[in-house]
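thread from #wetlab-drylab

HS: before we spend reagent money on co-crystallization trials with adenosine-5'-diphosphate, can we at least see a predicted complex? here's what I'd submit
DV: go for it
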Amino acid sequence: MMESASLPSTPPLIACENLVAGYTRDIDILRDVSVRAWSGSISCVVGPNGTGKSTLLKALFGFLKPSAGRVLLRDVDITGNPPFRMLGLGLAYLPQRPSLFPHLSVESNLKLGLWHARPKKTVLTEKLEHVYERFPVVREKRAQPAGQLSGGQQRQVEIARSLMADPSVYLIDEPTAGVDPQTSETIYDIVRDLARELGKAVLLVDQDIRAALAITDYVYVVKNGTVFSEGARADFGADTDALVARWLYASGE
Ligand SMILES: Nc1ncnc2c1ncn2[C@@H]1O[C@H](COP(=O)(O)OP(=O)(O)O)[C@@H](O)[C@H]1O
Ligand SMILES: [Mg+2]
């Protein structure tokens, strides 16, 4: 799809260019992927199961070392930094699978969101208060073992934990997988506010195309390890069904 008036005119905060990555030396899962995300907006990567969406986020965050291509943050090459460095650079990664320590209290989990920064106690207390103000449910449950919370509540704790470090970029993998529809709505509202209210650049990977597109500004359709269609959300038109059909057709399902 061509450049459009609805695209941000500013440079992207985070981008990857022609990324190639995989889990073994001989098989590339990502064969040539270029995506971008802008401060204050949401870019969404959709595509069939097993196409490499989670792999893309892992490669961006440094869990996988790309064999070619670049990851750029504010136009600075950060390719291949390990995850703890990516955290320090202002990236947050919310994996598809639950990532809390289930036996630790909610508050202990939140504190771990800042472990890499070795904060002073006063700073830690201040940050905790900040996220508790934003997430009343998290405050309410702060003394409970995280594993006792519902799936949706645990998602909120994960987002609250990431906010402790005040990142500028969010890499989010299927935030509502296995969550009931009503809770999903809450989670998507939170993701939307990360961009709209807090100005984060969000790169969202999702299978729930309809729900994700409702909050997305820019769409990438990934297939067979590469981007085969992209455009501003507005350019795909109001007819989400057409996009879904096109995606299904193109994926050969
Ligand atoms: N840890 C891993 N080791 C080896 N292969 C993997 C691993 N994780 C995923 N894969 C493979 O990489 C491909 C893409 O997976 P993934 O990125 O999880 O897809 P998606 O998130 O789009 O469903 C799949 O073929 C999958 O089997
Ligand atoms: Mg996945």
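DV: The first strand starts at residue 14 and ends at 21.
HS: ok that's useful, forwarding to the group
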